[in-house]
Amino acid sequence: MKLLDERVWALFKRNWYQTLTYWSVFFSFGLCIAFLGPTILDLRCQTQSTLQQITWVFFSQQFFLLVGSSLGGLFKKTLLSSLSALFSCTLIISLVFAIIPLCNHVILLSIAMAIAGKAMGVIDTIANLQLVKMYQRDSAIFLQALHFFIGLGALVSPLVADPFLSENSCVLGTNWTANSSSSSSADLYHLRSSMAGHGTALHNISQYPLHTEGTVITRVSYAFWIIALINLPVPAAVLTLMYYERLLPCFSNSPRLLAKDSSTSSAEDSGQGHGSVFICCNPAKLRGRPPTFFLLHILGGAILFITDGIIGSYAGFVYTYAVSPPLLMGHKTAGYLDSVFWAAITAGRLASIYLSYRYTAPRLLTFSLV
């Protein structure tokens, strides 16, 4: 039994480089979304901030991801604007990873994560939209593969970070001595327990040593620089696609480009075309719809966003929850939990590439929600 019929396979062969490029930018998305959780305690030391302060970087990243997703629609009108936005955003992600080790204050770190979050949001919107435009009603299987690459990037980033995470307290207080080194590991467990996601733990943290001033001893900077290098081929791939599509300035007068833009614009303006998935957004088609039509779409969107929020929260706090009482997992063991979690998501999305082709969306959603 073939995984793809000949028609869908022919579509992929005709658009393989564009498709692989859009998949690769979601790899950048995955690198960003999973890197903050395991490194948050080392970043607290780097910025010499309290635990209450450092948790704001989660909010900063997620809020601006929402903003970026909303703004991403502004770049959809032409292929040039879409690819230019993708190139800028993937390059920004590498730059942000490179400068995070230089952020010695929690406000600077929050600004850096906000910039990365906005870039992630733009990537999320544009890559999904371009694949839907390209494959129309056959886009489901390619969108599943797209989201597989999120899991792949999120699987890689905690593995890169783990060797550089601090084993003991990474801020040595001014009164620290060699005799106090034996208790530093136990103190670190208490510090991490406050990050388990419960507000009460944050209020009770004062009973444990929590140095915000002193000598910072952390090697997490190397992890960020390595990730920045790993991500660099992604903007290079987008730039290559722009060259292939004759969208660079030296090819701006290409007849091929003008013909493609003309046909694309006319198809978008009419909102029609063979199997167009955007026909449902035509106001004329929405008139007379029963209230249940809108209710189902609202509930479906709510489930989508809630599920995505749960994924982000779990990935951010599972590490610190694991090293806190009563689990008290070892540092290295807990460090792999993020990777195990994202490996499971990646496997599920890989399986969904085939399942979405063989089964209808209602059946898959019903099974998954149950």
From TrEMBL:
<protein>
    <submittedName>
        <fullName>Major facilitator superfamily domain-containing protein 4A</fullName>
    </submittedName>
</protein>
<keyword id="KW-1133">Transmembrane helix</keyword>
<feature type="transmembrane region" description="Helical">
    <location>
        <begin position="293"/>
        <end position="319"/>
    </location>
</feature>
<keyword id="KW-0812">Transmembrane</keyword>
<feature type="transmembrane region" description="Helical">
    <location>
        <begin position="222"/>
        <end position="244"/>
    </location>
</feature>
<comment type="similarity">
    <text>Belongs to the major facilitator superfamily.</text>
</comment>
<feature type="transmembrane region" description="Helical">
    <location>
        <begin position="141"/>
        <end position="161"/>
    </location>
</feature>
<feature type="transmembrane region" description="Helical">
    <location>
        <begin position="106"/>
        <end position="129"/>
    </location>
</feature>
<feature type="transmembrane region" description="Helical">
    <location>
        <begin position="20"/>
        <end position="41"/>
    </location>
</feature>
<feature type="transmembrane region" description="Helical">
    <location>
        <begin position="339"/>
        <end position="357"/>
    </location>
</feature>
<dbReference type="InterPro" id="IPR036259">
    <property type="entry name" value="MFS_trans_sf"/>
</dbReference>
<feature type="transmembrane region" description="Helical">
    <location>
        <begin position="82"/>
        <end position="100"/>
    </location>
</feature>
<feature type="transmembrane region" description="Helical">
    <location>
        <begin position="53"/>
        <end position="75"/>
    </location>
</feature>
<dbReference type="GO" id="GO:0016020">
    <property type="term" value="C:membrane"/>
</dbReference>
<keyword id="KW-0472">Membrane</keyword>
